[in-house]
Design a protein that fits this description.
The chain is of the alpha/beta class and 463 residues long. It has eleven helices and 22 strands. It folds into two domains: 6-102 and 259-462, Aminopeptidase; 104-242, Aminopeptidase i, Domain 2 (Roll). It starts with 11 loop residues before the first helix and ends with a helix.
Length: 463
């Protein structure tokens, strides 16, 4: 079954709306390169659309009724938006769930050292990365430093044109004969992904000259600029990411090249769809979660009780509370696990089975199952739910395609879908095709971004 290229059906009005959406999306992923930044930006957009804090609503004992819009935040890294519909919550809700964490390098708790008259920051990689991607490329540092007095310092260095950038050195080709004989996974050791951050010594005359003058110069700068000491690294979350903004790609400007599109392309389109549907019959929920790239673990990951606890609060404020009502609500819900799929790459065609691959520009992807080998670790959506999804997309005129994550046995991967499916709700993976997934600069097609937004809106309105 061939699916047409979505661009072929667009008129001028479609292209104008597509370009507006994609320009906003590029700005979002350029400015927000950590899960904390994505959540903070999401809260601002939600508040501008009339959403209020659930925490405040609970404290004030505000009743929630049809049309109420609330948001909840977990550890500043996960965001949940809820638009109350007119139907009873026991009948279930419509959920869009994406993740806002992306592969990166995290600074270790004791990162700073000096060697060879240069200062370095030691890192630990997060998620699935190819270490050789990270050398000899401009890098930025984003995150927070929390001090003992309770204050939090926000850091974002390397994005502004006036900012310095950072890098990790690579071995020069002239001395790399042994390195080039190694398999790609061993060419760059993960312990060597240390970021060069300074190369100038502090000059102090006499006996007070420090043993590590370059490191001391850096500490002086950190003290002057941020008011922090070396000890404050112990309570910091600092992430090393590629420096620079997302860009339009191709002479026809049909694509987007940017960092973190897995999975912020689905997170942004889910967020935009949630905010752009003001009234619903069946309550709509959008989840933007953390930690998917490392197994959805921890207090801000999907395996935490944040979603379930928040839904319990919603039911209580809506006058529909109780443990049985909550169980019925969750079991009767429907979800699109909004996560990216592997775009077919003609340069690596043997890794795909083309008739079941996601073709760039052919619309929103549905992965009935993910996992590896014999669907191991997969949520496998049932045929009845797949039929409902097809009907929703066709009625809304959404271009979509079905796909798998590569050839059987070539690898595999998972999403948050199986976690929500444990409640008994209908769940299917749905997202945007991506080239060069988990690299520093990933590629999406604007048509797929637009069709994802349309598909998510249709799901909220009709599922």
């Amino acid at each position: 079954m061939e699916r047409p290229n979505a661009w072929k059906k667009y008129g001028d009005a479609d292209v104008a709306e597509l370009e507006r959406l994609c320009a906003d999306y590029r700005a979002f992923i350029s400015a927000n390169k950590t899960e904390r930044e994505c959540v903070a930006a999401g809260v601002k957009l939600a508040e501008a659309a009339g959403y209020v804090s659930l925490e405040a609503a609970v404290a004030e004992g505000c009743a929630l009724t049809a049309g109420s819009k609330v948001y909840a935040v977990c550890h500043n890294k996960t965001l949940m938006l809820v638009n109350l519909g007119s139907a009873p919550l026991e009948q279930g809700v419509n959920i869009l769930g994406a993740h806002v964490d992306s592969p990166r390098l995290d600074l270790k708790q004791n990162p700073l050292y000096e060697a060879g008259d240069m200062a370095y920051l030691d890192t630990h990689y997060y998620g699935g990365v190819k270490a050789y991607h990270w050398v000899a490329t401009p890098l930025a540092i984003h995150g927070v430093i929390c001090k003992k007095d309770g204050t939090t310092v926000e850091v974002a260095v390397g994005e502004d044109a006036a900012d310095p950038v950072f890098c990790i050195s690579d071995l020069l080709i002239h001395l790399a004969s042994d390195q080039l004989k190694k398999p790609a996974s061993e060419a760059v050791d993960h312990e060597n992904l240390d970021v060069i951050v300074a190369g100038r010594p502090v000059v102090i005359e006499g006996d007070d000259e420090p043993k590590e003058p370059v490191k001391q110069m850096l500490l002086n700068i950190l003290s002057d600029k941020y008011g922090i000491t070396e000890e404050d690294f112990l309570s910091a979350e600092l992430e090393v990411v590629p420096a620079g903004a997302a860009r339009e790609m191709g002479l026809d400007r049909s694509m987007i090249l940017g960092y973190g599109q897995d999975d912020r392309v689905c997170a942004y389109t889910s967020l935009a769809a949630q905010l752009d549907v003001p009234t619903v019959e069946r309550t709509s929920v959008t989840l933007l979660v953390d930690k998917e790239e490392i197994g959805s673990v921890g207090a801000s990951g999907m395996t935490s009780r944040f979603f379930e606890n928040t839904m319990a609060e919603i039911l209580e404020l809506a006058g529909q509370g109780g443990p049985l009502a909550l169980r019925r609500c969750l079991a009767n819900s429907r979800m699109l696990s909004s996560d990216v799929s592997a775009g077919f790459d003609a340069l690596y065609a043997d890794r795909f089975e083309k008739k079941n691959a996601a073709i760039m520009g052919h619309g929103l992807c549905f992965n009935k199952y993910t996992g590896a080998r014999g669907k191991s670790g997969s949520n496998d959506a049932d045929a009845e739910y797949m039929a409902l999804v097809r009907d929703i997309m066709d009625e809304a005129g959404v271009d979509f395609q079905t796909c798998e994550l590569g050839r059987i046995g070539a690898g595999g991967g998972g999403t948050i879908a199986y976690i929500l499916a444990e409640y008994g709700m209908d769940v299917i993976d749905s997202g945007v095709a991506v080239l060069s997934m988990h690299s520093l600069w990933e590629v999406t097609n604007k048509a797929d971004v637009y069709e994802a937004y349309k598909g998510y809106k249709a799901f909220i309105e009709r599922a």
